[in-house]
Design brief:
7-stranded mixed beta sheet; alpha+beta; 23% helix; 167 residues; single chain; 5 helices; two-stranded antiparallel ribbon
């Protein structure tokens, strides 16, 4: 498995190229996730508004399978869930700003994903990635998102965040 880089600041996110260029939806998806899906409890643990296993917003289990002899994400005892496939059932519950540039075609308008690992109460880890072909993921386009970056994104409006990312 390639060593995953952790993105801690907006500059790191911008340098990664995740969700860019248009018509990719990853930055809008990440903004939604940080501002509308994640909450921090009194112990500063990352919680969800709806458990991903309930499949709201198109969440579904993610199988961290081998591509050749390489896993995309670290092995863990916690289940992984994925969101961002705009063709999945219930993805129509994502806000219109996330879905607005989706063409329904096999193009870059639906390649970005967020993958989370969850324990029984909290998010363990948050990752962003991109599809490479029909069913593979780009290991060089996969990053861990820090809790700090989530809180930074929460301080922005959508327009401010996209302007900061120069979209």
């Amino acid at each position: 498995m390639p060593r995953l880089r952790t993105l801690n600041e907006l500059a790191h996110l911008q340098e990664s190229g995740y969700g860019q260029p248009w018509p990719r939806h990853g930055l809008k998806l990440l903004y939604w996730f940080a501002n509308k899906y994640v909450e921090f409890d009194e112990d500063n643990e990352m919680c969800w508004r709806y458990h991903p296993k309930k499949r709201w917003y198109g969440f579904h289990p993610f199988e961290n399978r081998y591509n050749g002899n390489v896993l995309l994400l670290p092995e863990t005892n916690f289940p992984y869930y994925e969101v961002g496939n705009l063709g999945k059932p219930r993805s129509n519950r994502l806000p219109a700003y996330v879905r607005s540039d989706y063409t329904g075609s096999h193009d870059n308008s639906n390649i970005d994903r967020i993958i989370v690992s969850v324990d029984e109460e909290y998010f363990d880890r948050v990752y962003v990635t991109e599809h490479s072909g029909e069913s593979d993921y780009n290991p060089h386009g996969t990053y861990r998102i820090s809790r700090g970056l989530i809180t930074i994104i929460q301080d922005y409006t959508l327009d401010e965040f996209l302007n900061e990312m120069e979209c």
